[in-house]
Amino acid sequence: MPKPLYEQELKTLQARLVEMQKWVQQSGARVVVIFEGRDAAGKGSAIKRVSEYMNPRQTRIVALPAPSERDKTRWYFQRYVPHLPAGGEIVLMDRSWYNRAGVERVMGYCTNEEYQRFLHQAPIFERMLVEDGIILLKYWFSVSDVVQEERFRSRLEDPMRRWKLSPTDLSSITKWEDYSRAKDTMFLHTDIAEAPWYEIESDDKRRSRINVMAHILSKVPWEPVPQAPIEIPERPPSAGYERPPRQWTNSVPDYAREVEKRAGASD
Which stretch is the leader sequence (predicted)? Predict the structure, then answer.
């Protein structure tokens, strides 16, 4: 997707998402959006664009670490329940309870009994959420093997993104077909009418971000919320306040000025 067209549409959709958030807050709706997919499929960057201008007090990103030893002794869904939204909130899940059907299954982090129990319980759990009034959206970001490897190599060469590579991430190359089978089985058991899966083709990251944002806006039954006019008051006359001398406080060195000097010297 051409960058100028993408950036123009991105701003339009982000503005509408802010309007949608106002409706969610005023109506007391509860929204959960699950972002799943292979490593390097573009989930994180899509979440970043979706949430960029939204109020972080009402929109939370949930990206849980590996389960603790205590977590492993609890009901599997228990660690996710505290992160579900209250009225007026939106939760964006960067991976979710579907870890069990994906990475845990493929890497052997769960038993077959735990895996089968998940496939049975996940639709029940999600039907309970929807029955209670939660708007649940599930997105699978689909990336080709060629593009995934290109993105891995790009991260390897970028010191600011190298942290995104882990042994588990890289295993998705050697276990590509295993992940494919796990995803197909997951869809078979959990693509339910109350909470269907939606696939996002993500070889083109710009296109995938635009598509997921537009789809979220189409699935949440929001409408524009009238806003009361806001007027900035005039500043009142000074009452004689004087700021204490600057040397009495600790100031951050003006590093920006040093950067400007160096840039001027190089010119």
Answer: none
Asked if residue 19 lies in contact with residue 224, where contact means CB atoms within 8 angstroms, the answer is yes
Q: 86 is written with which tokens?
A: 């209250």
**What is the pTM assigned to this prediction?**
0.91
Give exposure, 129-142, as e/b (b: 16+ Cβ within 10 Å).
beeeebbbbbbbbb
Please give the Cα distance from 80 to 74 (Å, whole number): 11
Contact criterion met (CB below 8 Å) for 136 and 130 = yes
pLDDT, tens only, 217-245: 999 999 999 988 999 999 999 999 999 99
- Distance separating alpha carbons of residues 129 and 195, to the nearest angstrom: 10
* Residue 139: closest CA among 215, 82, 217: 215
Name all domains of the chain by residue range, CATH numbers in brackets.
Answer: 3-219 (3.40.50.300)
- Cα(170)–Cα(196) distance, rounded to whole angstroms? 29
Closest CA to 98 of 32, 153, 157: 32
Query: What contacts 142, CB < 8 A, 6 or more positions away?
Result: 37, 38, 41, 199, 200, 201, 202
Other Cβ atoms closer than 10 A to 6: 16
Sheet bearing 89-94, strands edge to edge: 59-62, 89-94, 30-37, 135-142, 197-201
Distance of CA 153 to the CA centre of its chain: 23
Q: Indicate whether 265 pLDDT > 90.
A: no
Q: Cα separation of 200 and 260, whole Å?
A: 44
**Which of residues 163 and 76 earns the better pLDDT score?**
76
d(CA 119, CA 186): 7
The residue among 266 and 196 whose pLDDT is bigger is 196
